[in-house]
What does this fold into?
Amino acid sequence: MITPPAPQGLLGMKPEEIAAVFAELGQPAFRAKQLVEWVFAKRAATFEEMTNLSKATREALATRFVTRTMTIAKVAGSSDTTRKFLLKLHDGRYVETVLIPANPALYGGSSDRRTLCVSSQVGCAYDCKFCASGLAGFARNLTAAEIVEQIVQVEAYAGERVDNLVFMGMGEPLANYSNVTKAIEILNAEWGIGIGARHMTVSTSGLAPQIKKLADFPLQIRLAISLHGATDEVREKIMPVNRKHNLGELFEALDYWNQKRKQFLTFEFILIADVNDSLQQAHALAKRARSANAKVNLIPYNTVDGLEWVRPSEAAQDAFLAVLVNAGVTATLRREKGHDIAAACGQLRLKQETELGIIESPIPAKRITIGGGAE
Ligand code: SAH
It folds into this structure.
């Protein structure tokens, strides 16, 4: 497949970049402001709509930029359940975005917010064993425009605003640091999408150097760590990234984060039977959560085709939780009823693509499951 040149999406541009373009075109600064309004406040999907810009200006812009870079290929689910959006990118690859409605009863959380779970990369290089990404590979980073556009596409389709964002879709957000942080600035800005920084959570498999860098990022976003093992021995079995950045290094980065930030950290911990669900792990996790001042989200493992892991019994899950609670750690157990709608969406996407016969990408579709946490 020949990859066409990446179109430059206006949704990934900051006002100063747009101003520079207008200066180059010999246009007054207020015209640049008008374009910013069309792109973000008015969400213009075409240049034709931008009626207060001259035809010549619009034509000049259209030779260099695009208003949209992706299309919605498929939507699964209905307005009162989790909806999965399969998005087709300009180069024929796909990513998935998941809209989780405000319905605490369904999702077992305390969230009364509409949450969007966004992707940051096509594929993932980190090969976490429970996540089945070993079956696929890494294709490329998403651009800032492609990250912002996931929200814009979903809001336009659903006819409602998203008020909480989690970077828990496909990819490792901190491995695409500059595009993700640029997207966050645009998503947060008054002139941009206007989502509060405290309503955005970056979830990472534990890239310690980038965690430190993010600690110095000015916006007060939240940080979630995909921990999944409370000792190096257990963690490195399921997360190869732990060999590069072990728990010592990770927790040193978290100390730095805590020095700079007031918000609680979140640890995500998938419970996998006989892998990381022993009470020793629970005690070790409690100690680590206390040391990093983190709350813990326990997520019973959702089965992934091709992997043998299984979810522990409910009694084992409760016993694990009890150790944390008794140790004074704030912990929740996310036990979705039925078929784990939010978490199983990655697998659904693969099925849809196959059924539709629309896999064009040379890389195999990546199967992921997504933790639907609202915080
Ligand atoms: N790379 C980032 C973002 C991916 S989201 C990161 O590692 O944090 C990763 C989250 O998806 C996990 O922390 C977990 O909450 C969820 N997840 C992945 N595979 C899962 C599975 N098989 N069952 C349940 N949750 C899963």
